[in-house]
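Exam revision sheet. Question 4 asks you to relate a sequence to its structure. Input first:
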Amino acid sequence: MPSDKRKVPEINASSMADVAFLLLSFFLVTTTMDVDTGLARVLPPIPDENIQKKEDVKIKRRNILVVLINRADRFLVNGQEMSLVDLKRKAKEFIQNPNNLEDLPEFEYKRIMIANPDYVPGSDEPQRISHKHFDRKYPEGFPISMGVISLQNDRGTSYKRYIEVQNVLVAAYNEARDELAMQEFGKPFAQLINQEDVDAIRSAIPQKISEAEPKNVGGR
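Answer key, structure tokens:
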């Protein structure tokens, strides 16, 4: 008696691929993706190890502004509770120290260094050169703040509040840079076209925001 052999139909691999592609397309079109909003920040270049060792010194109390955000989204600035508006004013005053007060950051007089546009790897040209305008106007060096803003949030701090505080601190730096750009080049920082001038303002007012790992700051 002949055996009953049934032929198994072959699976069309190309058809399966088409179906998979259609399912993927449907998923991408119909699915809502949550995207975090926040700040686009340009990180500073990796420091030279030798330079970093020399700069690893204790920061004086006058040179640090401590911003603590607790789990209730309230924050203290050097131990004093304040609003976002007051934080911006306080941060800007800390960054600039316009009256050279003793309880605000010290200044370090330095030449303003910028990226050398003529530098190419392997050439004898230095990677960084001094800015001619600042050299002429400030022959003894430009007063650069030694201040650092230390931001510390609680593990229970909301992401919204954290971003709000970040925005305020960055805005304070931007306003300080705008004022210096107007003073030196006659236009706000964001409107500077010459990249050398942009680098100069960034060097003159470096954005120094130190962020620590979240911990239990406290608050209800």
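Marking note for examiners. The beta strands are 64-69, 75-77, 80-81, 107-110, 113-115, 128-130, 142-145, 148-153, 209-211.
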